[in-house]
From TrEMBL:
PROSITE patterns: RIBONUCLEASE_P. One of its GO terms (molecular function) is tRNA binding. This is Ribonuclease P protein component. Belongs to the RnpA family. RNaseP catalyzes the removal of the 5'-leader sequence from pre-tRNA to produce the mature 5'-terminus. It can also cleave other RNA substrates such as 4.5S RNA. The protein component plays an auxiliary but essential role in vivo by binding to the 5'-leader sequence and broadening the substrate specificity of the ribozyme. It holds the Pfam family Ribonuclease_P.
């Protein structure tokens, strides 16, 4: 990864493929962990698609936060925290493997960015340990 793009969050890093999302949620082999107010569901697969080594999905259910403004804020906070700390996973990931991660918001209140960032770092460290 070039040094200039080290802290970017490009399209290849976003989990958009319906096939991969179904594999992550319906496959039965994915793992889950929680660091309140976030839950991370992840799956390590053989690299086969054209996407990046790590692909991320951020979901904030309407049931948790009713207003779209609040949901968008939380998604922005999670994406920014991941973008700043994704190197934790890239250092541990083996070649020929691809990691799918879904971050799901499980609280019905907003949190400040430093708290969200510490929880994302916590989850990324725990996922990296299990790789």
């Amino acid at each position: 990864m070039p040094a200039s793009n080290k802290l970017s969050f490009r399209k290849e890093e976003r989990l958009c493929s319906r096939k991969l999302i179904d594999k992550l949620f319906c496959g039965g082999v994915s793992r889950s962990m929680t660091a309140f107010p976030l839950r991370a569901i992840y799956l390590l697969i053989e690299e086969g698609t054209g996407g990046g080594k790590v692909q991320v999905l951020v979901s904030v259910p309407k049931k948790q936060l009713k207003l779209a403004v609040k949901r968008n804020r939380v998604k922005r906070q999670v994406r920014e925290a991941y973008r700043r700390n994704k190197q934790i996973l890239f250092d541990k990931l083996t070649p020929q493997k691809q990691l799918l991660i879904a971050f799901i918001w499980i609280d019905n209140q907003l949190h400040d960015s430093t708290n969200v960032q510490s929880k994302v770092v916590n989850l990324l460290n725990r996922i990296a340990e299990r790789l």
